[in-house]
Each structure stands twice: as C-alpha cells, then as structure tokens.
Amino acid sequence: QVQLVESGGGLVQPGGSLKLSCAASGLTFTDYHMSWYRQAPGKERELVATIDAFTYRTDYPDSVKGRFYIWKDDVKNTVSLQMSSLTPQDTAMYYCHARNTRAISSAVYWGQGTQVTVSP
Q1: Residue 104 has pLDDT above 90, yes or no
Q2: Burial (0-12, 13-18, 19+ Cβ within 10 Å), 97
Q3: Degrees (nearest 5) of the Cα angle 81, 84, 90?
Q4: 8 Å CB contact between 34 and 97
Q5: What single string gives the DSSP state of each residue in 75-87?
Q6: Count H helices, E strands: the chain?
Q7: 3-state secondary structure at position 92
Q8: Of 105, 106, 89, 111, whose CA–CA distance to 34 is shortest?
Q9: Phi and psi (nearest 5°) for 44?
Q10: How far out from the chain centre does Cα 21 lie?
Q11: Cα-based angle 63, 96, 91 (whole degrees, multiple of 5)
C-alpha cells in the first residue's frame, strides 16, 4: 500500500522558516517525480515545488521562487521543502505528491497534508 506522510507543519511568525518532510513507502521512490502542493480554504490547490526523479531538476512558481527549496533523499525515500521568509499568504495545507515517470502509468499519489499557518 502506497503511503505519503507529511510532517513539519505548524504555526510560524511572518518572516520565519519551516521545513516540511514527506516520507514515502510502498513504491519505488526513484520512479516518481515528487512535488509539493498547497491549498487554502476557498482557493484552488497550487503547485509550489517539484523535483525530477532522475535529474533532480527543480521548478518553482514565481510566488515562492527564492524562498522555497525542495530536495529529496533516495536512500531514506523522503522529499523535503524548506520554506523561508514566510508570509500570511503562505498559510495553507501543504500536500506531498508523487507522479510516476512513465506516461502510460496512471499512478498518482497524495499525502494527507500538513497545516502551515503564518501569523503574527
């Protein structure tokens, strides 16, 4: 059974930092592109970071570029997101996402999410 379990969320002051982690099990971790998404109440889910399964290339939207950093550990089967210079606009539920590298595969997995709240 595939599981993605996020951790590291919490309450942080504006300008502060948090590190989120996602532990993957039940899949061949190196076969999956990993991403972080976030969703606030009443808003659509948005991509905040992604990392390529093979090249470790990363991509970020302009809203977080320069503030967020994604990396993965293929031994521990984890993917992490370091967030800095946080603002209230970053408040959301953050989700770990795994997508199989083969286009013919329908395998897409989501974690249950971890809450990040940025408030003075």
Answers
A1: no
A2: buried
A3: 80
A4: yes
A5: TTTEEEEEE-S--
A6: 0, 11
A7: strand
A8: 111
A9: -80, 155
A10: 8
A11: 45
Let me know: does 95 contact 37? Beta carbons within 8 Å: yes
CA distances from residue 119 to 11, 15, 78, 94 in whole angstroms, order as listed:
7, 10, 28, 16
Task: Give the rounded percent of residues in the chain with a pLDDT score beyond 70.
Answer: 100
Contact 89, 62 (CB under 8 A): no
Looking at the DSSP assignment, which residues form a beta bridge with residue 19? 82
Compute the residue count for the chain.
120
The predicted-structure confidence for 28-86, as pLDDT tens digits, reads as follows: 999 999 999 999 999 999 999 999 999 999 999 999 999 999 999 999 999 999 999 99
Q: Are 24 and 4 a contacting pair, CB within 8 Å?
A: yes
Q: Give the pLDDT confidence score for residue 106 in this predicted structure.
A: 79
> Rounded to an integer, what is the distance from CA 69 to the centroid of its chain?
10
Distance in angstroms (rounded) separating the CA atoms of residues 10 and 16: 11
